[in-house]
Amino acid sequence: MVVIVLTACPAGLRGHLTRWLLEISPGVFVGKVTSRLRDELWKQVLEECRSGKAFLVEPAQNEQGCRFRTHRHDWEPVDLDGVHFMLRPKEAPTSSGLRPGFSKAAQYRRARK
């Protein structure tokens, strides 16, 4: 089984993928295709995706039974001793000493103390 997730991609690409896969949610495509067709679909996604993001989950002969491919995605697939993980980017530290989410009024009150 193959899963392709698209974010901010052209509608024409989504239409092309619906020829081969089922769109179960906006931008989420699922289906069972041959490895050759899967590689051709991924090549098409890379050519047409432009500034959008794409994610592919495909079957593999490993412990988890799947592997990942990404295009312009913030999270990167990492292989650690044959087990695949998604490496999340570090969050940028905030410039103020306060935790994010506090209002300006709360920040002023804390600064006065």
Question: Can you describe this structure?
Answer:
The protein is α+β, with helices and mostly antiparallel strands and 113 residues long. 27% of the residues lie in helices and 33% in strands. The chain contains three helices and seven strands, in the order E-H-E-E-H-E-E-E-E-H. It has helices spanning 11-17, 35-48, 104-112; strands at residues 2-7, 22-25, 28-31, 53-59, 66-71, 76-80, 83-87. It has a five-stranded antiparallel sheet with strand order 2-3-1-4-5, with helices on one face. Strand 4 (53-59) and strand 5 (66-71) form a beta hairpin. The longest helix has 14 residues, at 35-48. It is elongated.
The backbone outline, from C-alpha atoms, is elongated
**Distance, first to last CA:** 59 Å
- The Rg value, from CA coordinates, equals 20 Å
Order of helices and strands: EHEEHEEEEH
Record field, number of beta strands = 7
Count of helical stretches: 3
Unreliable segments (pLDDT under 50, ≥5 consecutive)? none
Estimated structural class? alpha+beta
> Per DSSP, what share of the residues sits in E-state strands of 2 or more residues?
25-35%
Which tags fit this structure?
113 residues; alpha+beta; 5-stranded antiparallel sheet; two-stranded antiparallel ribbon; 7 strands; 27% helix; elongated
Topology:
Elements (H helix, E strand, L loop, with lengths): L1 E6 L3 H7 L4 E4 L2 E4 L3 H14 L4 E7 L6 E6 L4 E5 L2 E5 L16 H9 L1
Antiparallel strand pairs: 1-3, 1-4, 2-3, 4-5, 6-7
How would you summarize this macromolecular structure in one to three sentences?
By secondary structure, the chain is an alpha+beta fold. The chain contains three helices and seven strands, in the order βαββαββββα.
